[in-house]
Amino acid sequence: MDNVINSIFSVSFMFSVLRLTTPILLATLSSVISERAGIGNITMEGTMLISAFVGVVVSAYTGSAWIGFIAAVIIGGATGYLMSYIIFKLKVNDILAGIAINLLGSGGTVFVLYALTGVRGISTALSSKIMPVINIPIIKDIPIIGEVISGQNIITYMAFIAAFVIWYLLFKSRLGLRIRAVGENPDAAKSVGISVYKTKSIALIIAGVLSGMGGAYMSMGYVSWFAKNITAGRGWIGIAAAAMGGQHPIWGMLSAVLFGIADSVANALSTINLPSQLVLMIPYIVTLIAMCVYAYYQKRKKVRIHG
Questions:
Q1: Cα–Cα distance, 195 to 172 (Å, whole number)
Q2: Residues 296, 120: Cα–Cα separation, whole Å
Q3: What is the rounded distance in angstroms from the CA atom of residue 213 to the CA atom of residue 22?
Q4: Residue pLDDT, tens place only, 236-268
């Protein structure tokens, strides 16, 4: 047990927190921008799976990690557009559309993987590439801080930068104002000439791009292969983190870090003689507890306002 405690308060633990936060953070930002546009988007899990798979396949056939990454991001954006088409053109309920895309991501990737390699579970038959690790000049030489921040995968830096980009987009740009307007009152937005369909579609495409980055990280940064359900619920955890953060990109980022810590603790506990099933449950237990606490304080807040 002492070894576990020592590992939790180590530099390597803090380094792993950033690694494990990355896909959760990107799913969180995806949920934030969708909710701000007034869309119940639950496709993060499916989009991440599809993008993770596409990134691996394209990087393997082209020999380029960057081309694979770009393909993963493009397919993520395309999935977001598909979601908007299903919802707004075909008039399908957004939750049902989300379930369909999640099932497509879960089952479709396994089917295509088997068609390409003859293997259902993992893509080790493909020589896929991984995105580069970045050693930041000057910062890498700072004790402790350099060991934690420097040497991360480039997508990790993209994810944390994206939190501030999405904040600027939502609260400082004209597009962000329109996204929030159609999310809060689409009829009022329409009355002043804002295209509700176009604005919500753009929001879903941006959300898909963010999820696509998260999926690419899982198969081209965190590991170097694709496996069935490789995301392991991180898309759902991202939705919870966004809710905890009040659908705000910066608070959502901090919530995502909390879940990244829980994931890292689970990894540390896996080194001692505990049932693996219990260890694997830790991030999801933390998610459940955090959502209960969040709901409790939201209820108290409403009582104070209306009471």
A1: 19
A2: 43
A3: 9
A4: 999 999 998 989 999 999 999 999 998 888 877
Phi-psi region of 302 (alpha: psi -120 to 50; beta: other; left: phi over 0): alpha
Angle between helices 44-62 and 11-36 (to 10 degrees): 120
How many domains does the chain contain in total? 1
Q: Read off φ and ψ for residue 144, nearest 5 degrees.
A: 65, -60
Q: What's the CATH code of the domain at 235? A: 1.10.3470
Give the integer Cα–Cα distance in Å for 231 and 17: 16
Domain span at residue 57?
2-306
> Which of 306, 268, 269 shows the shortest CA–CA distance to 13?
268
**Quick one: which of 304, 69, 88 has its CA closest to 209?**
69
Residue of 185, 224, 235, 225 lying closest to 76 (CA atoms):
235
Extract the residue ranges of the chain whose pLDDT is less than 50: none
Q: Which H helix or E strand runs over 33?
A: helix 11-36
Cα 222 to Cα 133, 225, 270, distances in angstroms: 11, 9, 18
Residues 6+ positions from 59 with CB-CB distance below 8 Å: 65, 67, 68, 69, 71, 128, 129, 220
Radius of gyration of the chain (CA): 20
Dihedral sign, Cα of residue 286, residue 103, residue 243, residue 220: positive
d(CA 78, CA 40): 18
The pair of three-digit structure tokens given for residue 251, joined into one six-digit string: 């608070």
The whole-model pTM stands at: 0.92
Sign of CA dihedral 136, 141, 142, 145: positive
**DSSP H or E stretch at residue 152:** strand 152-153
Work out the end-to-end distance of the chain between its first and last CA atoms, rounded to an integer number of angstroms.
48
Adjacent-strand bridge partners of 227: 122
Phi-psi region of 38 (alpha: psi -120 to 50; beta: other; left: phi over 0): left
DSSP for residue 153: E
